[in-house]
Amino acid sequence: MTPINILVTIDANYIQPLQVMLKSMFLNNPEEHFRVFLMHSRLAPDHVDGITAFVERNGHTLSEVRIGEECFCDAPVVKHYTKEMYYRLLAFRYLPPELRRILYLDPDILVINPIRSLYDTDLSGWLFAAAYHDIIFAREINRLRFPEYNIKAYFNSGVLLMNLETIRARVSESEIYNFVRKHKNTLILPDQDILNSLYSQDIKKLDGFLYNYDVRYYKYRLLMAKKQVTMDSIVNDTVILHFCGKRKPWHKNYSGAFHALYKHYQKLALLP
Amino acid sequence: MTPINILVTIDANYIQPLQVMLKSMFLNNPEEHFRVFLMHSRLAPDHVDGITAFVERNGHTLSEVRIGEECFCDAPVVKHYTKEMYYRLLAFRYLPPELRRILYLDPDILVINPIRSLYDTDLSGWLFAAAYHDIIFAREINRLRFPEYNIKAYFNSGVLLMNLETIRARVSESEIYNFVRKHKNTLILPDQDILNSLYSQDIKKLDGFLYNYDVRYYKYRLLMAKKQVTMDSIVNDTVILHFCGKRKPWHKNYSGAFHALYKHYQKLALLP
Which of A82, A113, A204, B164 has an alpha carbon 20 to 30 Å from B253's alpha carbon atom? Predict the structure, then answer.
């Protein structure tokens, strides 16, 4: 099987969650080889060395993609989001030109089942593949925020499969910068807003239950993709659990249906 | 290291939970060798073969301890409990005479950390080691139910470390039968009632937070053994999670803080 390319972009606050995410992915994909591309601008060399050692100890490879201070200097930093959140959209400019696809993953997720079916999604003609979150609510809000864009759906950018060949041909850095300059004041989730405003018609829809399950939904037993959501179906079938929102499972006083499972993987990730 | 002897007693309804329990124990104790003694009277040979194959596939050994119909014929079957629940107290009569200690485990538990510290508990002078559950409430009830016995504490019998050498010398089958005949109508948890009424002063107290954590307590964040209970402390330190009560994590519509973690081990146990 071909290796699976994974893109992550973090700052120093997310090193441990990143390791938990990677550990869960490695453990549940024992037959895969992962090439992890770590895109960053501000991690200390010691931190990069630590992450590299972690990935190699688990039998996989890590490539550092260091972004110089001169890059992205026009992009606004909005609220509590770091500049790294823009990286995923322009990652293609800094990744090896021979890569044909890569899967971007947020660090606040667990990969609890084999990821191959997601990675091998047919992307012919598409730029990206992603899943919806909060579709109706988000769509209405975005119609008010970005009335001139024909936003068909609001995709979550935390799990983003990239067709690098079509992205290189069709995604324009200047178009993204122009959008950012124009909407600086209304951006809430900058990268996600850009993705949805400029490219929503070029994003293939993934099954959100399988590939980007918002754990906050569990409490309400929301039907997703017409499936009855049970703990069995999630643990057996869902590939990616996404701990969306401000409350994270590594925070004190977090509670949620997947708290113990998260701590389980955290323990395994931190074993020497 | 010496092998760890484990005693289990189940009927056909508990085969899958037993496998989940054993799988969690094997996974979290990769350096141990377990000898599992399966005491039963009514399992079909196919079932025993299946459990044996499961244990051996995981690198451990299973010994069947088949109890004939002629044994325990005087013991009452109370309510929804099966006769197997009496076995643990008289297991010593049917186990190999060279065994010096054995750890009885209920099938409704997960072993999430190394079990060696529990197994090696110093039992000099004691018959058993066990943990308290619901101590104040249970003690009062039992004072009413069994006024003639000096019940010092109410131990949970779901995790019961046995000092087989002293048990052989001091536990009397006829004393147990006499107690059962006398209290047939007031027994609620027969084996546990016997254990506490006859032997509570010979049971060494285990740390319940570490070795027999009642998962129903989590919701109320009960302090046990003066420790602050957090999800981190449970996942990192607790050895045994006990899914006490009638609602079990393998039932439909179960909910609880450790549901996802249980399903995780269930999935691993059922992998081919």
Answer: A113
Q: How many CB atoms lie within 10 A of CB B148?
A: 6
Contact check, Cβ <8 Å, B235/A267? yes
Which of A171, A6, A18 has the alpha carbon at shortest distance from A99?
A6
- As a whole number of Å, the CA-based R_g of chain B is 18
* Domains of chain B: total: 1
User: What is the value of ipTM here, to two decimals?
Assistant: 0.84
| Each residue's pLDDT tens digit, A70-103 | 777 766 666 555 666 678 888 998 999 999 999 9
Separation between Cα atoms, residue A75 and residue A191, nearest integer Å: 11
Question: Does A216 touch chain B if contact means CB atoms closer than 8 Å?
Answer: no
Å from B102 to nearest chain A CA? 28
Distance CA A212, CA A118 (A): 10
Alpha-carbon distance of B7 to B242, in angstroms, equals: 16
Range of the domain at A236: 4-270
The pTM of the full predicted model, rounded to 2 decimals, is 0.88
Contact A260 B257 (CB under 8 A): yes
Contact A261 B266 (CB under 8 A): no
Instruction: Write out the two tokens for A88.
Output: 């995923």
Cα separation of A55 and A254, whole Å?
Answer: 27
Q: What is the spatial distance between Cα A72 and Cα A102, in angstroms, rounded to a whole number?
A: 21
Instruction: Name beta bridge partners: B9.
Output: B39
Distant-in-sequence, close-in-space partners of A167: CB < 8 Å, separation ≥ 6: A92, A127, A128
CATH of the domain at A202: 3.90.550.10
Greatest Cα-to-Cα distance within chain B, rounded to the nearest angstrom? 53
Q: Which of A235, A257, A267 sits opposite B236 (nearest CB)?
A: A267
For B237, nearest residue in chain A (alpha carbons): A267
> A113, A237 in Cβ contact below 8 A?
yes
Angle between helices A15-27 and A259-270 (to 10 degrees): 90
- Residue A232's nearest CA partner among B263, B207, B213, B160 is B263
Q: Does B47 touch chain A (CB under 8 A)?
A: no
Burial class from Cβ neighbours inside 10 Å (0-12, 13-18, 19+) for residue B56 reads: exposed
Give the C-alpha separation, A109 to A21, whole Å. 6
CB of B260 within 8 Å of a chain A CB? The answer is yes
Q: Return the pLDDT at A134.
A: 61
